[in-house]
Design brief:
Length: 134
Amino acid sequence: MRIEDHKKRLEESLKAIEESIEKGIVERQRNIGFNTSAAATDMLEILLHKKFLIDQGMVVKHEWLKSKKSIQNKLPFEFKNKEKIIDLIFKIEEKRNVLCYGKPQKAETIQELIENFNKLKDILKEEVLYDTAK
């Protein structure tokens, strides 16, 4: 998928996350779970495309990011802040299915996910959220 397409999807997820926070994180935990996972994956793919570490035909699947062994197998190359980025995405994926398919979670659990997502966004904002290639 092209970077521009990932950016459109990322914007959609960011808006859904923002709306879910405004309406109440406990009431919208499924939306937060799905969209933080999707947005994290899109941000990672944008980064990897911009660094020419993967081609446009490769799709990074969120399932890969639930296992550190899988991450190493699928993404063996190095890039700036890789350990921090992968650790935050791993934490997001760890909560995804619980929020999406499990029983309602405490606000603290959802807030922790949002905080990890925001940390990821902060690390990647220059590279992913803004067009620094110009």
